[in-house]
């Protein structure tokens, strides 16, 4: 029985019946699906599921049964909410992409994904994040650009594995002091916000090699930025 099925870009409005029960990899990228059959959620061996670039308006709570998933792509659909059951996907360690949907809230349930390394939530309509993000302890790359974020919680500083934080094109006027605790951070993208200053704690980020501050109209540059550049950090203004 096949363990891999690539049905991407085929204009499908429905799925073949039946799907092989042995599937570990299912790629349905770029079709015309408005929903998926319940049978899909019974494929307990799935490790990679790509449902991006379809016309999905909802995802069944039954997705929580896919405990072996390590990679899930739901991007470029029409989703306004995500089921809390995503937080039950304890095997989701590699990649979760929910960008370019219609989300107005960041699902707090995602903060239960303690093994997740990459989380993309860009190009939605999210104005705030949950107060407690500390459960995302393994996250290395967090992409939140193109939303409408007006503030960030102090708990962001608890993401001790974070290497890239992408916050371009939001409405941030300030940043939490706790960002200085992100000792592994390499890239910090703050373009197209409303920042006027940076917390002094950011000066402690010894591994930062790229800081992008462009298009913050009234930004006042702190003197320690020169020290960043002297040690080789690329600072874009």
From TrEMBL:
Keywords: Leucine-rich repeat, Repeat. Pfam families: LRR_1 (PF00560), LRR_8 (PF13855). It comes from Amycolatopsis decaplanina DSM 44594. This is Leucine-rich repeat-containing protein. It comes from the Bacteria. The lineage of its organism: Bacteria, Bacillati, Actinomycetota, Actinomycetes, Pseudonocardiales. SUPFAM superfamilies: L domain-like. The keyword Lipoprotein does not apply. The keyword Repeat applies. SMART domains: LRR_BAC (SM00364), LRR_TYP (SM00369). InterPro entries: Leu-rich_rpt, Leu-rich_rpt_typical-subtyp, LRR_dom_sf, LRR_domain-containing. GO terms for cellular component: cytoplasm.
